[in-house]
Amino acid sequence: MNRFSLILFLCICLSACNTTEEKKPETKRSIFSFNIPSSLYSLDPAFAKDQATIWATNQLYSTLVQVDNDLNIKPNVAERWEITEDGRVYTFYLRKDVKFHDHADFPNGKGSLVTAEDIAYSMQRLLDDEVASPGRWLFEDRVSGKEAFKAIDQHTFQMILKEPFSPMMGILSMQYCSIVPKLLVEKLGKSFRDNPVGSGPFQLKRWIENEALILERNPDYYEKDNTGQQLPYLDAVRISFDENKRNAYLKFRDGEHQFLSGIDATYVDDLLTEDGKLKAEVKDKVNLDRSAYLNTEYLGFNLEKDHPALSKLKVRQAINYGFDREKMIRYLRNGIGIPAVHGFTPPGLPSFSKQVEGYDYDPDKARKLLAEAGFPNGKGLGKIMLETVASYKDLCTFIQKQLADLGMDVHLTVHPSSFLRELTAKGETSFFRASWIADYPDAESYFAVLYGKHPAPPNYTRFRNEKFDELYLKSINENDEQKKFSMYQDMDRIIIENAPMVPLYYDEVLRFTDKGVSGLGNNAFNLLILKNVKVQ
């Protein structure tokens, strides 16, 4: 489809929205437009493994529970729930006003009520070999056989785990766990991917693969704002899929899009100063919203590799103290990111605490530790090979130069990302660049990376610590959040004390909107929530 045809098509689609029952005569249509710089391969939430699919399915479907912008678990389709004392049985009591979107294959074409049977089907479907969902791992080895998901009655759903797992409520908020209509999915089969029907705030109007997605307001959506007004406020959402980030920025600058996510080298200097603030010339046109992001960038040590220097704890600690994280972020990342001086888990998680004291820049302490390790001023230390990828070469070069001031001879080797992952998984590198993005809004997602019984992946460092492992197992059995958070903080302190890694920085989510947009919000999970958005 050429550019002219696409524009004409979008105009026809958006005009057609005026024919719905919710037509607002003589009122300007409220349309929110933006770009996702990657292709969208499915609108079936069982395949919500990438940002494009997660963002799209979050508008189309509902989940049992949802997270707010502080990542707290809130009711959604389930208005309340109970968890047994042993932490194995979850019982959810459902709202009675949640309907699927209208569809020709429903009786009379009207969306049916969401029932516990639909929910049980949606969860079990993730384990179905024929579906082959990449979200299978959420429940595999965690639920108790075929009877794990039960419809007790039309409005009561029950889930039974093999063993308690306290992060489960966060998992149930993920888009993989979106509720689909059993009747339609069984009828449509694999074609459900491009004929999605959920109960979310928006419903599908048109999807041109690799080009555009048009969503329109769901007139039967069940949520209301705190004044009693029905959500969503928008009439339509228009998403393009242009991998050229510069093109997407230009459309945002010219007003064709109202929202721009993230920052890219091709336009960073158009919007931000060197310290990450909005430039004066765009302040009257653009809003910038920054949030912590559940992504920690780090350097890892392979503790199973018998390295003459890195096997020594005090050398690993010296490396942690030996470079200036704040300066690195300011000059190499335009001030985007937060120095990782409070351990492995990032801000944005409810359990994060600044009382966990990690490594700050202290070259004198680093020199002292090197001397205590038997390498005064780096003498006798030998070469240390740091293996990284091209996109992080500048950061690693900065660290290399600062460690050189301590007498440490660090050499960089740059690999393709896939090859470096293979090397670290096989244990063939001693010192490597890595990152960890949370799969769900619970710090357990980070500590699982260092649990001693986990292989690589995710435990690329091969870290094993008896006290850490004991706390990990205890924490996933603990449903009292404050007690669990206290254990999480103790686990982070053990990581800092044993230095299996060098935390670099906690990433941030940057969202740019034009001045007419309100209600978008931001969150550390980088989840796009459009039901509260207004466009003037």
CATH superfamily of the largest domain: Periplasmic binding protein-like II
Shape: globular
Tally of structural domains: 2
Helix content: 25-40%
How far apart are the first and last residues' alpha carbons, in Å? 31 Å
Q: Please report which band the strand proportion falls in: under 5%, 5-15%, 15-25%, 25-35%, 35-45% or over 45%.
A: 15-25%
Largest sheet: 5 strands, antiparallel
**Low confidence ranges:** 1-9, 14-26
Look at the structure and give the CATH class of the largest domain. Answer: Alpha Beta
Fill in the CATH topology of the largest domain: D-Maltodextrin-Binding Protein, domain 2
Total DSSP helices: 15
The total of beta strands comes to: 19
Description of the structure:
The protein has 536 residues and is of the alpha+beta class. It has helices at 3-16, 51-60, 116-125, 168-172, 182-188, 245-253, 268-271, 313-321, 325-332, 363-372, 393-404, 417-426, 444-447, 466-475, 481-498, and strands at residues 31-35, 65-67, 73-75, 78-83, 89-94, 149-153, 156-160, 202-208, 212-217, 236-240, 259-261, 286-301, 338-339, 383-389, 409-415, 431-437, 501-514, 517-518, 534-535. It folds into two domains: 3-249 and 516-535, 3-Layer(aba) Sandwich (D-Maltodextrin-Binding Protein, domain 2); 293-509, Roll (Dipeptide-binding Protein, domain 3). It contains 15 helices and 19 strands. The longest helix is centred in the C-terminal third of the chain and has 18 residues, at 481-498. Mean pLDDT is 93; it is low at 1-9 and 14-26.
